[in-house]
């Protein structure tokens, strides 16, 4: 099995489902399940907390006893099982419980696939950016398809598309897989994997984690309210998908060149540029509440998300032993991609009720401190 091809295909299929979940799930709860924006935000925030717990603790624990492939198969089957329970659910309580269950299993697939990618990169077998760009392509295709399906069949198409996507992801995992990802950790491996406590002893890791916590958390308003915000600007549902995809297209362009573009830059320099781009992005949306500026601001996703993510992956492969990668990926997914977004979702929901644009401007309470922290720490810690 060609490792590069396997990783590209895995990223593509997973991020196809992510393109259904990330931009549309809050809107689906509002439109298809008749929840208020505040109730949907609360449910999604609790889901993000559950996601943080699963990715920080459940995934690293399982990675000590199961192969990467078995972990992905297990969580995909559980996610499919949980998604089916959404069909009959109508009350706030049932939707909350199912969302917590779904969030405990589905998003955990991300650190599992990313951990496998980091292991293959360390062995010199693959170019991360090239394969990760296929994930972004899958995301773009999903957003376009969903925008068309919802135009014909309404928001109910979102859930059914997720179920179909998870079925394809499960089928993919029964195909040939790179050898290193089939190996079950031995007793010696479990000793070497070390605890998370050992990871915190790496001097630069806590600082880098705080930086990505702030930079990735700053996307909370965009992820949860971007779809609804565009609806309030009276954008046709079909075009909403296209507009959302503009951000991912720029992300793809960056990922395709990331292995060579700015390859000599330290992770801290990439983080700094990402923070500046993110701050500019949210300020623009607040100052100019119209579709044209929102579209222009989408180009900055390559910096606010793409560059911050690549900077962390680069730090991971350069600074940590391979035994600690699952722990680091679990913490990154749990804190930077989940808990931070959960906290900012609560904040964003409150601000959105006051004025939609304030939810986006509020995200600079993360980006500005991140920039300050990078400037203070980069000289001393040399990361």
UniProtKB/TrEMBL annotation:
Domain Major facilitator superfamily associated: 6-355
Main location: membrane
GO cellular component: plasma membrane
Membrane topology listed for this record: Multi-pass membrane protein
Keywords, ordered alphabetically: Cell inner membrane, Cell membrane, Membrane, Transmembrane, Transmembrane helix, Transport
Transmembrane segments: 12-30, 42-59, 71-89, 95-113, 134-153, 159-183, 204-225, 237-256, 268-288, 294-317, 329-352, 358-376
Any one GO molecular-function label of the UniProt entry: lactose:proton symporter activity
Protein name from the UniProt record: MFS transporter
């Amino acid at each position: 099995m060609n490792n590069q091809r396997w990783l590209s295909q895995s990223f593509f299929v997973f991020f196809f489902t992510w393109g259904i979940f990330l931009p549309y799930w809050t809107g689906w709860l509002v439109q298809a399940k008749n929840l208020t924006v505040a109730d949907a935000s609360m449910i999604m925030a609790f889901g993000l907390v559950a996601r943080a717990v699963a990715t920080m603790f459940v995934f690293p624990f399982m990675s000590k006893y199961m192969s990467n492939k078995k972990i992905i198969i297990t969580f995909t089957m559980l996610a499919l099982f949980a998604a089916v329970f959404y069909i009959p659910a109508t009350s706030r309580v049932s939707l909350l419980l199912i969302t917590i269950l779904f969030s405990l299993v589905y998003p955990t697939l991300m650190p599992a696939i990313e951990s496998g990618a980091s292991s293959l990169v360390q062995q010199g077998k693959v170019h991360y950016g090239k394969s990760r760009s296929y994930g972004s392509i899958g995301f773009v295709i999903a957003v376009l398809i969903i925008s068309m399906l919802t135009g014909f069949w309404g928001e109910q198409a979102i859930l059914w598309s997720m179920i179909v996507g998870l079925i394809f992801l499960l089928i993919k995992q029964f195909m040939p897989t790179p050898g290193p990802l089939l190996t079950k950790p031995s007793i010696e491996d479990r000793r070497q994997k070390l605890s998370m406590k050992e990871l915190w002893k790496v001097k630069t890791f806590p600082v880098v984690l705080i930086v990505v916590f702030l930079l990735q958390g700053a996307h909370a308003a965009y992820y949860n309210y971007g779809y609804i915000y565009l609806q309030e600007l009276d954008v046709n549902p079909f075009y909403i998908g296209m507009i959302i995809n503009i951000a991912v297209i720029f992300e793809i362009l960056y990922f395709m060149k990331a292995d060579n573009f700015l390859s000599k830059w330290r992770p801290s320099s990439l983080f700094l540029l990402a923070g500046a781009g993110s701050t500019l992005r949210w300020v623009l949306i607040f100052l100019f509440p119209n579709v044209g500026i929102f579209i222009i601001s989408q180009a900055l996703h390559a910096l606010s998300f793409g560059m911050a993510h690549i900077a962390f992956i680069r730090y991971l492969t350069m600074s940590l032993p391979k035994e600690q990668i699952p722990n680091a990926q679990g913490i990154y997914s749990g804190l930077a991609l989940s808990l931070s977004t959960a906290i900012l979702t609560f904040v964003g929901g409150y601000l959105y009720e006051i004025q939609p644009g304030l939810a986006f401007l509020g995200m600079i309470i993360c980006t500005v401190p991140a920039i300050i922290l990078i400037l203070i720490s980069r000289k001393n810690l040399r990361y």
